[in-house]
Amino acid sequence: YFGFVLYRTNLKKNYSEETLLISPLNGVHDRAYISVDGIPQGVLERRKSLMINITGKAGANLDLLVENMGRVNYGRYNNDFKGLVSNLTLDQDVLVDWEIYPLDIDRAVGHGLKCDDDELKTPGNTPPSYELPAFYTGTLSIPSGIPDLPQDTYIRFPGWTKGQIWINGFNLGRYWPARGPQMTLFVPSNILVSSAPNNITVLELEWSPCSIQECVVEFVDKPDINATFQYEGNSEKLFSRDLWLSHL
Question: Is Transcription found in the keyword set (predicted)?
Answer without folding.
Answer: no
